[in-house]
C-alpha cells in the first residue's frame, strides 16, 4: 500500500511537473512571439439581423507558434493572464485591431465597428485608457468605431477605479459591450449605470435556443429588458437558420456565428466585405 501511495504520488508529481514546464515554456515563448510577429488577429463578422448587413467584426487573437502551429486563445490566454503577459499582448491586440479596422471600407454607408476583447487583468492593471488613446490616435480610427468587450466578472467589483476607467472610455466615445452576458451576476439596471452600449448574449444560451425552452425564455427576457434600457443586443454562436429565425422573432439586433462566417484572417475579411457589398 505504501508503494502504491508512492507511485501515485510520483505520477501526480510528474503530471504537475509537466504542467509547470508547459507553462514556463509558454511564458518564455510569449516574449519571443510578441516581438517576432507570431500573433495575428482573425476577424468574425457581426451582422444586423434585420438587414443582414455586416456592421462590424470581432478581433480574435491567434498565435502562430513556429514549433506548434496555430494556437487558439483558449490555449494561451489563461497563461497570458496568470503571467501578466496579457497586458502587452492586449495592448498589441488593441493597436493592431484599430490599425486594420481604419482601412476597412464603409459598408452600406455605415463605417464598421471593430470589437476587441479585454481581459479583467488587462482592465485593472493595463493602463487601459492610455493604451486605447494611443491605439486610436496612431490609427486615426474614429472612437465610436471601437467597441470594447468586457466580461461581467471584470465589472463585478465596481471600485472607484473601475468606474473611473469606464467613464473615461465613454468620454473618448468608445463603445462598451458586455461579453458572455447571462453567465455572470450583473443586473441590467446596474449595467445601465455603467453606460454600457451593448449586451452580447452568451453562446451557451443561443446554441440550443430552438430545443431548450428555458434558454429560449432567457434569451427573450434579455432582449426585452435590454431594449427597455436602450441597449443593443447581439447573439453569439448563431450556427443555423432555425436559431436565426427565433432570434429575429425576439427582436435581437445583431448576430455572430458560424452560420454567417467563421473567424478569418484580415485579408480574407476584406474580400468578404467586398463580396457582401456587391450583393
Ligand atoms: P469570446 O470572446 O466569447 O469569442 C467567441 C468565441 O466563439 C471565439 O472563439 C469564436 O471563434 C467562437 N465562435 C464564434 N461563432 C461561433 C459559433 O457559431 N459556434 C461556436 N461553437 N463557436 C463560435 P476563439 O476565437 O477560440 O476565442 C475564445 C476566447 O478567447 C474568446 O471568447 C475570448 O474570451 C478569448 N479571446 C480571443 N481573443 C482575445 C483577445 O484578443 N484578448 C482577450 N483578452 N481574450 C481573447
Ligand atoms: Ca468576445
Ligand atoms: Ca463571448
Ligand atoms: Ca465565451
TrEMBL record:
Which compartments is it annotated to reside in? Cell membrane
Q: Which organism is it from?
A: Zoogloea dura
Q: Where is the EAL domain?
A: 23-277
- Please give the first and last residues shown and the length of the full protein: 608 to 886 of 888
Q: What is this protein called?
A: EAL domain-containing protein
Q: Where are the transmembrane segments?
A: none
Amino acid at each position: 500500500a505504501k508503494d502504491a501511495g508512492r507511485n501515485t504520488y510520483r505520477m501526480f508529481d510528474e503530471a504537475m511537473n509537466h504542467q509547470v514546464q508547459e507553462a514556463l515554456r509558454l511564458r518564455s515563448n510569449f516574449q519571443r512571439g510578441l516581438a517576432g510577429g507570431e500573433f495575428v488577429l482573425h476577424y468574425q463578422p457581426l451582422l444586423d439581423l434585420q438587414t443582414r448587413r455586416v456592421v462590424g467584426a470581432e478581433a480574435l487573437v491567434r498565435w502562430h507558434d513556429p514549433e506548434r502551429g496555430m494556437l487558439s486563445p483558449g490555449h494561451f490566454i489563461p497563461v497570458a493572464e496568470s503571467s501578466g503577459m496579457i497586458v502587452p499582448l492586449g495592448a498589441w491586440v488593441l493597436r493592431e485591431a484599430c490599425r486594420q479596422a481604419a482601412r476597412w471600407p464603409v459598408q452600406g454607408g455605415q463605417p464598421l465597428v471593430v470589437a476587441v476583447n479585454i481581459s479583467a487583468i488587462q482592465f485593472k492593471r493595463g493602463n487601459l485608457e492610455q493604451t486605447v488613446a494611443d491605439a486610436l490616435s496612431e490609427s486615426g480610427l474614429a472612437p465610436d468605431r471601437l467597441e470594447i468587450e468586457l466580461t461581467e466578472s471584470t465589472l463585478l467589483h465596481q471600485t472607484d477605479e473601475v468606474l473611473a476607467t469606464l467613464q473615461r472610455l465613454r468620454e473618448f466615445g468608445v463603445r462598451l459591450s458586455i461579453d458572455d452576458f447571462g453567465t455572470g451576476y450583473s443586473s441590467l439596471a446596474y449595467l445601465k449605470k455603467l453606460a454600457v452600449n451593448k449586451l452580447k448574449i452568451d453562446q451557451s444560451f443561443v446554441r440550443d435556443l430552438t430545443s431548450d425552452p428555458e434558454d429560449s425564455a432567457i434569451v427573450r427576457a434579455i432582449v426585452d429588458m435590454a431594449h427597455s434600457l436602450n441597449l443593443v443586443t447581439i447573439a453569439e454562436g448563431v450556427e443555423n437558420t432555425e436559431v436565426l429565425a427565433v432570434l429575429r422573432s425576439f427582436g435581437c439586433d445583431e448576430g455572430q456565428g458560424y452560420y454567417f462566417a467563421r473567424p478569418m484572417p484580415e485579408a480574407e475579411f476584406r474580400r468578404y466585405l467586398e463580396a457582401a457589398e456587391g450583393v
